[in-house]
Amino acid sequence: MAEALLRARLAERGVDARVASAGTLAWGGPATGNASLAVAELGVDLDGHLSRQLTAKLVDASDLVIGMTRDHVWRATTLSPDATGRAFLLGELARLGGRAGSRHPDESERAWAQRVARERPDGPIGRHDDEVADPVGEPLAVYRATAARLDRDLRVIAELLVP
User: Which of 25, 53, 59, 67 is deepest in the core (most CB within 10 A)?
Assistant: First the structure.
C-alpha cells in the first residue's frame, strides 16, 4: 500500500519517482483484496503489485528507506549498514522531516534524508507511534485505517521531498 500511495502522491506533485517496496517476510504474491480495496478508495491502484524480499541490493540502491516497523528499519540497516542515515520509520520521517524542513532544490534525496537523520535524538530509532502495524489478516476496516494513516504521512513526506 505504501509504495503505491507514495508513488501516487509524488505523481500529484509532478514527479515520476522510482518507488519500490520490499518486505522482511515477502511471499511473492499480489496485494490482498482488502489492501486493494482500501487504497482504491483513496484513488490509487494496486493491480500488478507483487511482494518481494528486502535485499542489500535494494537498500543500497535507495536514496531513502521507509520502514513500517523498527524491525524493518533494523533489517535494512543490517543488510546495508550505511543506510542508517537514510532509513526511517514512516511516522518518524514525517515528524523529523517537518523539523528539518523541505528538501532544497539543489539537494539530493539522499542528502535530505541524511539532514533529517541528524534531527534524531540519541537512542532507539523512532517512537512506538511512528510504527505502522501490518494489517494482513485483519478486516477491511483495519486496512482502511492503515491506508488512511499511510496516506496522511506519505502526503507529508511527498510535500517535504517536492515542496
Answer: 67
